[in-house]
Design brief:
Elements (H helix, E strand, L loop, with lengths): L1 E7 L6 H8 L8 E7 L4 H10 L4 E5 H9 L4 E8 L4 E7 L14 E4 L5 H13 L7 E4 L3 H9 L5 E5 L4 H5 L3 E8 L5 E6 H6 L1 H17 L6 H8 L4 H10 L10 H13 L19
Parallel strand pairs: 1-2, 1-3, 6-7, 6-8
Antiparallel strand pairs: 3-10, 4-10, 5-8, 5-9
Length: about 290
């Protein structure tokens, strides 16, 4: 039995992993796959990949590309979610801000540097034409930290996935002043180089299992009701999210995709220079 550790955010995007683990599909292939939730998001997972705390991570595209550039010894194998992630831009419910333009020069809560909440705040600022060098970040660790920071006037706005934070908007904890979709497919699967060298066949089996699950995921009977109950979201919100979300069914990562994302990150001043695409990709499908 091969032991492998995988990490991802505890959100509805990763429910297919839960199903395959619940059904012991990896065990049947001789793989003891153990899942770990990362409420802190991609920055936290990049750190875990570096330290060996996880072998596989389902991470945000922009975060892992930036971290590989900065020396993370991992490779991207494929996209996981093909569609963009919609980032809600939130203030405290009683804050005086009504539009994205009202947030120029304001304090930004982020889970950690290199996280999606950090990098997408830069993307949003770029889109708004703001001075990127003057952005004021406050590290809050995770969603709970973001709630605390806005409630206690330690930050002015916080960006997190639209549907995950929708209940907080409904409850009057957050006010959403706008959205900012990622300009690329949002989630990818990354694996530590050491694991790719030692267990390539096992990694292929893991990918085959999750990709097969993703082919039929949206057609599972009553999946909308299951997700609504599990993640405590309104049924209509889950139904809208399912319509907007497409999972990868096994297409390998392309060189053009990596190049395009690097070009965008360079344009946004998130990275200082590009690297060769082969430093990011491991194609397991040849």
């Amino acid at each position: 039995m091969t032991n492998l550790k995988i990490g991802g955010v505890p959100e509805h995007f990763n429910y297919p992993w839960y199903l395959t683990l619940k059904n012991k599909e990896y065990t049947q292939e001789g793989i003891n796959l153990r899942w770990k939730d990362f409420p802190g998001g991609t920055g936290d997972m990049c750190k875990a990949l570096r330290s060996g705390d996880v072998d596989i991570a389902v991470v945000l595209t922009e975060g892992i590309i930036k971290d590989i550039i900065n020396g993370n010894p991992s490779k991207i194998l494929q996209t996981y979610v093909e569609t963009p992630l919609i980032w809600g831009i939130h203030t405290h419910a009683s804050a005086p801000f009504e539009n994205i333009s009202d947030l120029e020069g304001k304090r930004i809560a982020i889970s950690r540097y290199g996280s999606g909440s950090h990098l997408m705040a830069i993307v949003n600022a770029y889109n708004q034409g703001w001075d990127l060098s003057s952005l004021d970040f406050r590290v809050v660790k995770n969603l709970e930290g973001g709630i605390h920071a806005l409630q206690n006037d330690e930050a002015d706005y916080f960006m997190w996935e639209h549907f995950t934070t929708k209940p907080l908007v409904d409850q009057g904890i957050f006010k959403r002043v706008g959205d900012c979709p990622t300009p690329w497919s949002c989630f990818v699967v990354a694996v530590r180089d050491e694991i790719l060298e030692q267990h390539p066949e096992e990694i292929k089996k893991v990918l085959n299992i999750i990709n097969y699950q993703n082919k039929s995921f949206k057609s599972i009977p009553n999946i909308d009701q299951t997700l609504s109950k599990r993640y405590e979201q309104q049924l209509e919100d889950i139904q809208k999210w399912l319509q907007l979300t497409d999972w990868n069914h096994g297409n390998p990562i392309s060189e053009q995709f990596i190049s395009d994302v690097q070009n965008k990150l360079l344009e946004f001043n998130v990275i200082n220079a590009k690297k060769g695409v082969n430093e990011f990709i491991k194609n397991m499908y040849i």
